TrEMBL record:
Keywords: DNA-binding, Glycosidase, Hydrolase, Transcription, Transcription regulation. Signal peptide: none annotated. Coiled coil: none annotated. The keyword Glycoprotein does not apply. It comes from the Bacteria. This is HTH araC/xylS-type domain-containing protein. It comes from Lachnoclostridium phytofermentans. Belongs to the glycosyl hydrolase 39 family. GO terms for biological process: carbohydrate metabolic process. GO terms for molecular function: DNA-binding transcription factor activity; hydrolase activity, hydrolyzing O-glycosyl compounds; sequence-specific DNA binding. Pfam families: Glyco_hydro_39, HTH_18.
Amino acid sequence: MNDGVNTEFEFITMKHGEAFKAWSQEIKIVFILKGNGWLHMEEADKAYSISQEDIFVINSFQMHSIVLEENALAIALLLSPSFIVTFSPETSNPNINCKSFLYSEDKQQIFDILRRDFALAFRAWYKKESDLSIHLRSRIITLMDDLLRNFSKNKKRSGKESGRERLRAAVDYIHRNYRDSITLADLSSHTYLSASYISRSFQKYLGISFTGYLTQVRLLHAAALLRGEKTITEIAYESGFSSPSALIDAFKQHNGITPGQYRRSMGEMKRSHYQPDVLVEEGFSTSFTSLMKYAEQAEEVVTLPAAGTCEISANISNVRCQLSHNWKIMINAGYARDILNASMQNQIVNLQKTVGFRYIRCKGILDDDMMLYTSDFYGKISVNYVYLDQLLDFILSTGAKPMLELGHMPSAMAKNRVQIFKRPVYLSPPADIEQWNHLISGLMEHLVVRYGIEELKRWLFSPWISVDLHLFGFFTLEDYADVYRSSYRAIKNICNDFKLCGSGCTSTSSQ
């Protein structure tokens, strides 16, 4: 039971005199309802002027501050990383570069789409347009989809950000485990950073001590729970405080009021939320007029044609030929490491009994979690086919043949060791193409010894990952051609009859 507190996303209002310096997990989408202000981005060391109808995004763990002038007002949508992963599992820690105030009026069309998405999502939340949570979630997902497709950037981190990036693992651990007792020693053991380094980094990059930051995280969760019905004692323990008195003391020190007073003030705000003197005909405060006009523009009345009926008859007694069920050729089973999971294997076995696919596609056979190509502390390379052999033995046991994608790049060989997905995946060319050629040649030789050339002639091989992944910016089309060519030659040098195919793709758009 969560007492109605939404931990996936939340709308908040922002006004003059409130402190908005922050560095947190949530992605923040901000719309200026009225007035002017300033946005300071620490990593860019710049302050931007912001005004009515500007819309911009603050990324996860991006230090910033927002200062609004008197009578100015803004609204922000906070999105937790876990919510983004639910609808886009391969998107982890997206880097969104969205600042409408950097563009002239004639370049605002793409931002108007975001303003529309934001307005429709806010209206669905504010007016509770549906009792089904899927309606509101779909509005939020539409907004994020437009952001990711049009504003997602994948740039290398600058040296100035490297220290903050190292601290990020410690902060992430705090946000996931704030309910437990956490010490600097705990952070050190889970992040492989020294306790003294973590302590210094909190002061350097956040301007606050480790214990102060941990307390603030716990207070944020306590404040959210105070909007529900749980007791102060329940909230204290669920927020990580050692006792109710510890919560009360910390809350009063940071907020100037007790949790009970805060809860009562929230109740008064709810009761005054719908005062008639601040409403317009549509049921919104006049403060939201600049936003809601985009929702009104998005609504077009569509008249559906009258439903008609028709009758179709078919003679099934005269069958001329059997239908070819092409959909039975292949099933995509996902990442190689996941296929070693017992529950996943049970599902595949059941599918094979009822459907009988010819091929089972798996990707990521060279990912770090398959432990096929790794290096130790001293840089010594180890090659281990144990997990791969278990995977292939299982696929063959189902009566299907493998379709193997030879990727992604092992971290020990990657030129660019940057991860953007939740899984340990590197979209990178090899640091040494000859080293890659040696890896693929050795892999194919192992498969021939274990399974035989005649068996491998029935398999499908994809020389590398999907070509459209170059859009993330971690390799060029020239890099892709080099890796693909090297893999192709290594495979064909073993046997020219081996079947090669394209990989799966990540986009339906034509290039």
